[in-house]
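Why show two proteins at once? Because comparison is the fastest way to build intuition. When a single record is shown, students tend to memorize it. When two are placed side by side, the eye starts asking what differs. So, the first record is below.
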Amino acid sequence: MRLSTKGRYAVMAMTDLARRQDQAEGRAVALAEIAARQQISLSYLEQLFARLRRKGLVVSARGPGGGYRLAREARDTAIADIVLAVDEPLRATRCGVAKGKSGAKGCMAGGAQCLTHDLWEEMGRQIHGYLASVSIADVLDGKLKARGRKDHASDKATEQKAGEMAAA
């Protein structure tokens, strides 16, 4: 998966925006405030927020007290939407996409796909699915940490039951 600083910073900034917007009762949040808190260049954030605005994820307000607000509720904004809005492809293969009937262009000589292509393609789909299932609200509410612990605990219990059945 290729997730550069564009995608990371956009998610960080949008999460910060959601938190501050809640605390300020819906007031627009200035990018300069987000830049200072998240230690991200203001000019870089301006570029990212222009893309986020074009994709309908944020709305801007001009004038005194101006800044940005989420276009929809934090619970309705998926992390995948943010990453895709700043032109970050959610794919793990190194293959390109060819124009024409075949659709895919492989990474090997002559456009052939490598032996592990399907592995990386499926991993990219899994990552996209995960990021699409997580909202800004999930991040702010700390649900990801709990989700991971639950999954880990479930895996341990399954392993233990499997071990007990094998021993019986």
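Second record. Ask yourself what differs from the first in the token line.
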Amino acid sequence: MTDMTTTPEGGHESLPSTQRSNRRGGDPASRGRTTIADGVVGKIAGLAARDVLGVHAMGGGLARTFGAVRDRVPGGGKSVTRGVRAEVGEVQTAIDLEIVVDYGVAIADVARAVRENVISAVERMTGLEVVEVNIAVSDVRLPEEEDEEPEPRIH
């Protein structure tokens, strides 16, 4: 799409639509502000962290206990932000994660994979720069331990 303007010599020149929009107040995409809530970044980070092999659960013991109770309440649903805290600024974000890893995995490798997956997902989906992802490993799930979410009694 082009716009016709008169040149000083009396002729006409065509302008691309990007130049035309700049004369009228700038690119439409830059008119206004987009804000992203801490909870949005937290959900993205929580889901991305859970996708990594070796991550058994998110959150510390107390948070997992309350979460397991909440998950059993009708309408409670699983909390994807359990074990996640995000601070969001205008163009940057910082994320803290608390995870439980499976016994036998290399914790440093799992942490690296979680960090990479979280940074990739958050930056791709939000456009924010992730300045840090701090990971606290609060527990190791042993193979003989029962999951905190037992099977329902009624099938």
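One difference worth noting in the second protein: Strands lie at 2-6, 12-16, 55-58, 84-88, 92-102, 129-141.
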